[in-house]
């Protein structure tokens, strides 16, 4: 806790940003987000958009896994539902993109609720495996319901447009992705200041105790599935506007593992953790690529081991964080902050 | 209806089911002893197959040396994995360990790609290739021999598990860790040996699976079907793994033959969903009662 | 994997030698023409990516040694993609934001489709790639893309034409993987089999990563096709299929399409490789023919066997360079539409032996190919037919 920030009432304690310094930083961040597309090149713009999309989906999974304690390996498949919904609406109906994204979120959350239905009877490992089953079945639907999803060759869709202006380049689609990400993040952060969010946490900590306290397990577990898949659906929709081609291979099981890894590395049960995890895991391959570029003059074979090294680093990060820092990057971040806040005192 | 075709498909299904049962056994053993679902089982299996390829094709060792060596090396690796990344996780939630094994799987894939490359490979042939005919029905020789080997290993294993002292220690640990401790059983030792044994079983299964369909770094997907097998059979039931293995093998093969290859995975996972909804703890698993 | 090292060394040596002979051929004031590439140097398609990379490098080298494209130097800027679409798009964005790119090599069908709208929008580039997808063979829908060879449908068409000639009315089986790549030519194959009077009595799709093929072989045993065409595989499960079919005493002839035709991959099949046939649009590294200076040059640049992917990358680059040459010659600006016009102007182009006959571009592809058969004694694919031109 920062020196000199006494919490005088409960509202103050639950506030999202408790000091003026923090608020100032947020304003600076907002300004940076607004200026970014004007100064970034196409490549940076691309990476930023990808990171933002991953943040939305990771945050969704964090609500389900980090805050409610229900492990899911279906996040990518739910994203797929959202992406296909957006593509189908955009191609056939041509409705405005904001509406499409909402419908995509809704469709994904419906699917999420159906997948979550067994969660009252089974939990833990069994639930995780049920979500794997859901991804396999959804993948089959994407690949074989040819009349709607275009089968294995997928769907190609037109770009989003505002007032007749088409958003094609990463730096243009950014203006859809960034505001929506910000809104979704604030939504998630505020969720845990409400009864629903606290009920989720109670279920995570001990579901039977939560039930004794009067929390209806099935209702809240399904609600958690619904909210989480809504995030996935919107993220999938954004993904669709970003890439504009959706195939069944776009959302593999590996991608669900990626999101799980992101919340493990970032920090489960922390909004900041989801953000840090998504940023970190998206950037790791790029950083490795840069290292290959640096290494290749002295070690010409560097590029050949690049892909396996990436896979090893990916798995290694999961193992490392689970064993040594189960609270993830968010905890490291808090420790650093604490150090500066308390300076010159020691923790 | 072509009944000969029907029965041939059934035979092929039972054959591939034998391999599922064998790998399922490895998964159940780990779960029984350590309460860990090892998501990396498919990757350990792949690793074993690659080690075998290294010994047989790379170093050109004869079969009688290459097979035991591959199994030993993979077993050793199982022990190292247990010591390095599973032991520190003792006492953590089952879900955390589950995710650690997912990470492990990814590390193994990367290692294999670095050592042996990402290209698909074939294993050295070591099984006779004359087809087997049971009555009129044709059975692919490799599937047949693989089934026979799997059955023998399973049988031997069950006998050892029932009678040998170590097997008893393992069962005691599975039953009640604290009680086993107080009876002087070396529980960490049991954990290590379970990982070694299951890695060895997986390596054997990997060699058999690889010799049928070739090997590649993404061979680990095989583990997904095995996961279905143990959930359907019940995570803590050896008998369940055997029966479910054959069941899944048969269902998968029939779906593939009559509906098309794309329906194989769908059929297996639909079975999984059905079992989860009707009998969440599997056909033969123990229903755990939660106490506050 | 010191292959890169060797490549680099040899390339420098050749460059030095050639540079001395040609002298300062390229004028320094002419603008470089950039060939960008999303190349799968790692990942599941790495075996092809490495070959493609080497092929493009060599073709670029040879082009520049011969004075570049009408004096413009050709510059190759590759980036690894690990055969993932998002990484591929990232590579595209990175390369195009750092260079003025006019030519591009893409690594997959999905990438080609993803990037097509961007190509149309920017209107600056002509793209080829590792994909032979039939869908791309549509100049209206994909005006800035071309296929460096026949499309998958055309490949199967060439095989079927060969079969119809060998054994009219033959029974043909078609086995494909259940992926976009595998499903691509199924409908086209059925149609052309019908047109050629062949009986396609067996179509099987196999699950991706499926190991056991015995049920599929059982179906084959009942259908008893004279020929079976595999499509959508690199190696597995083709060898197992053939082994089991042989052990049942089937006399079926087995065939493959481009990506299962690499000589060293077929060699890995072991005993059953003998007699394996397939269609390949290019000559092999070791092909000896009169009037094939390009093959001699390749062999002098690299003294070990180069894969069919190498030939693919090499040929793609030749075609792109030729398109650019036609555009520059016509005095037009280098952009998507002009480059495409330049490509379509390629008529009876002599590839120096990379393809055994003069080639012409038709639509978005170069529909020419030849049927080869594996000779176990020579350990080589040898030609089993003359060059077949599809119209």
Biggest sheet of chain B, strands in spatial order? 1-2
Major β-sheet annotation of chain A: 2 strands, antiparallel
- Using the 3D structure, state the CATH architecture of chain A: Orthogonal Bundle
Q: Distance N terminus to C terminus of chain B? A: 56 Å
Report the strand count of chain B: 2
Number of domains of chain B: 1
Quick recap of the structure?
Chain B: Belongs to the binding-protein-dependent transport system permease family. LivHM subfamily. The complex is a heterotrimer of chains A (347), B (292) and C (391). Chain A is mostly helical.
Protein topology:
The complex is a heterotrimer of chains A (347), B (292) and C (391).
Chain A: H1 10-14, H2 20-39, H3 42-67, H4 75-93, H5 97-116, H6 125-144, H7 146-149, E1 155-156, E2 160-162, E3 165-167, H8 170-191, H9 195-205, H10 207-212, H11 217-243, E4 245-246, H12 253-266, H13 271-295, H14 302-324, H15 328-342
Antiparallel strand pairs in A: 1-4, 2-3
Helix pairs in contact in A: 3-8, 3-9, 3-11, 3-12, 3-13, 4-5, 4-6, 4-11, 5-11, 8-11, 9-11, 12-13, 12-14, 13-14, 13-15
Chain B: H1 3-34, H2 41-58, H3 63-86, H4 94-116, E1 132-134, E2 137-139, H5 141-163, H6 165-175, H7 177-182, H8 187-213, H9 222-233, H10 238-258, H11 263-278
Antiparallel strand pairs in B: 1-2
Helix pairs in contact in B: 1-5, 1-8, 1-9, 1-10, 2-3, 2-4, 2-8, 2-9, 3-8, 5-6, 5-8, 6-8, 9-10, 9-11, 10-11
Chain C: H1 3-22, E1 33-39, H2 46-65, E2 74-80, H3 85-98, E3 101-106, H4 109-122, E4 126-129, H5 152-166, E5 171-177, H6 180-183, H7 186-195, E6 199-206, H8 214-223, E7 227-231, H9 238-247, E8 253-256, H10 263-267, E9 277-280, H11 293-301, H12 308-329, H13 336-344, E10 368-375, E11 380-383, E12 388-389
Parallel strand pairs in C: 1-2, 1-3, 3-4, 5-6, 5-7, 7-8, 8-9
Antiparallel strand pairs in C: 9-10, 10-11, 10-12
Helix pairs in contact in C: 1-2, 2-12, 3-4, 5-7, 12-13
